[in-house]
UniProtKB/TrEMBL annotation:
One of its GO terms (biological process) is proteolysis. PANTHER family: ASPARTYL PROTEASES (PTHR13683), PROTEIN ASPARTIC PROTEASE IN GUARD CELL 2 (PTHR13683:SF265). InterPro entries: Aspartic_peptidase_A1, PEPTIDASE_A1, Peptidase_aspartic_dom_sf, TAXi_C, TAXi_N. This is Peptidase A1 domain-containing protein. The keyword Protease applies. Residues 146-482 form the Peptidase A1 domain. Keywords: Aspartyl protease, DNA-binding, Hydrolase, Protease, Signal.
Length: 486
């Protein structure tokens, strides 16, 4: 314990002095390093073996969720298990290449939708029904999105919900369902809940929904998505149960007509920055703070989703959030540069800057898989990485959206240059090798997991976020990385 306290103190001292160091906690390296770290090692064969392993049966997660899926402590910190989509979708588990191709197709749709909504700048009204198309990539078989299990109603009915850092609404499918997609659990029936209460059109809660509809005195909502998918229904107040903790009077959408690619989960748990998201509605109960750790792809272990100010870890490295008044749901960060092998690549900070019209900037998004960068930034990063991997055999062609791939079948371990994000005020986030060089098939083909975009918007996707403890202090305007991993 004394050694751990000393370690934390060293990290804090380095932060105060403007530097960042590496440390080790519970045998996991923290994400932040000095720029002098030039190389990392990737265990190729272990990674290939992991993607060939079928996930545990979903029933085991159902059983565990009954008693151990959420915990609370004396400081009112609430922790939920966060699971990868593959843990739930074992019924039609396909080979890795097929799952990757499907995931990338949905990822392209997701990025197009985000780009369309976040690139118009001033004069565009960003309403609650504009944010949520990431659900599309979250629900399809093998998509790689992340789910929690919560109780809805009184008594609580357990439901899988996809987490969404860019959405300001909570919704579930509801009976009677005129049109419902397939989900893992029975569709929620509000007539069986003693706490379900519809919201009237004159309610202040209904007023918080822009363009809310009204039918027979009931407040109606409609959330539409980029591919034509949608959920429609009434707005209601309901009790949400997280482990042994009940949260009363949460405004949720009760969807009676739902269409699209929402296979698997019952709905969506919005974690965006607006007042109608789950975190926004918790408000003072959690101090506007939550954290998450996305477990690595192909793992049978669990990540975590934690609410409460006491969830903010000691030793995290904090970078400021950048507010975009045109898109308040999203979490923008002040990225200033990129690095390969401990050296900054030649990219101007202006490439990542959010302008006064709400254009550009860098969004952290749990719904996008692969990090997107404006072409100039991507090309500089890719070319520097290629130069640092000159000794590794390149494939003659790219795979899916990736243009830089390697044939590593005959390798057990490879040394690759580090890839880093540079933030304003000094912090440097150095990614684990598995977060930027990923397997795309079971034959040893690995690709550089970044992609270019023709827009000004950059998106830090969930592949790059995996395994890193991320904390969001929305009330004070900061996001923290580390000190632990998952």
């Amino acid at each position: 314990m004394a050694a751990l306290k000393a370690l934390v103190m060293v990290l804090v001292l380095h932060l105060l002095s403007g530097g960042v160091t590496t440390s080790k906690t519970n045998n996991h390296n923290t994400a932040f390093t000095t720029s002098s770290v030039k190389y990392q090692y990737l265990n190729v064969q272990k990674t290939i073996t992991a993607i060939k392993t079928r996930p545990s049966k979903a029933t085991s997660y159902h059983e565990m969720s009954k008693n151990t899926d959420a915990t609370t402590d004396v400081n009112s910190k609430l922790r939920l298990k966060l699971v990868h989509r593959d843990v739930i979708s074992v019924g039609n588990y396909s080979d890795h290449r097929k799952r990757l191709d499907d995931r990338m197709k949905r990822d392209l749709n997701r990025v197009r939708s985000l780009t369309r909504r976040l690139s118009h700048g001033g004069g565009v009204s960003y309403e609650v029904n504009d944010f949520g198309s990431e659900v599309i990539s979250g629900m399809e078989q093998g998509s790689g999105e992340y789910f929690v299990r919560i109780g809805v109603g009184s008594p609580p009915r357990d439901q899988y919900m996809v987490i969404d850092s860019g959405s300001d609404i909570v919704w579930v499918q509801c009976q009677p369902c005129n049109q419902c997609y397939k989900q893992s659990d029975p569709v929620f029936d509000p007539s069986d809940s003693a706490s379900f209460a519809g919201v009237s059109c004159s309610s202040t809660v209904c007023d918080r929904l822009e363009n809310a509809g009204c039918h027979s005195g009931r407040c109606r909502y409609e959330v539409s998505y980029g591919d034509g998918s949608y959920t429609k229904g009434i707005l209601a107040l309901e009790t949400i149960t997280l482990g042994r903790t009940m949260v009363h009077n949460v405004a949720i959408g009760c969807g009676h007509k739902n269409r699209g690619m929402f296979v698997g989960a019952a709905g969506l748990l919005g974690l965006g920055g607006g007042s109608m998201s789950f975190t926004g509605q918790l408000g003072g109960q959690t101090g506007g703070a939550f954290g998450y750790c996305l477990v690595s792809r192909g793992s049978n272990s669990y990540g975590s989703l934690v609410f409460g100010r006491d969830a903010m870890p000691v030793g995290a490295v904090w970078v400021p959030l950048v507010r975009n008044p045109h898109a308040p749901s999203f979490y923008y960060v002040a990225l200033t540069g990129l690095g390969v092998g401990g050296v900054r690549v030649p990219v101007s900070e202006d490439v990542f800057r959010l302008n006064e019209f709400g254009q550009g900037g860098v969004v952290m998004d749990t719904g996008t898989a692969v990090t997107r960068l404006p072409f100039a930034a991507y090309a500089a990063l890719r070319d520097s990485f290629i130069a640092g991997t000159a000794g590794l055999p390149r494939t003659t062609e790219g795979v899916s959206i990736f243009d830089t791939c390697y044939d590593l079948f005959n390798y057990n371990m490879v040394r690759v240059p580090t890839v880093s994000f540079y933030f304003s005020s000094g912090p440097v986030l150095t990614l684990p090798a598995r977060n930027f060089l990923i397997p795309v098939d079971e034959m040893g083909t690995f690709c550089f997991a970044f992609a270019p975009t023709s827009s000004k918007l950059s998106i830090i996707g969930n592949i790059q976020q995996e395994g890193i403890q991320i904390s969001v202090d929305g009330a004070n305007g900061f996001v923290g990385f580390g000190p632990n991993t998952c």
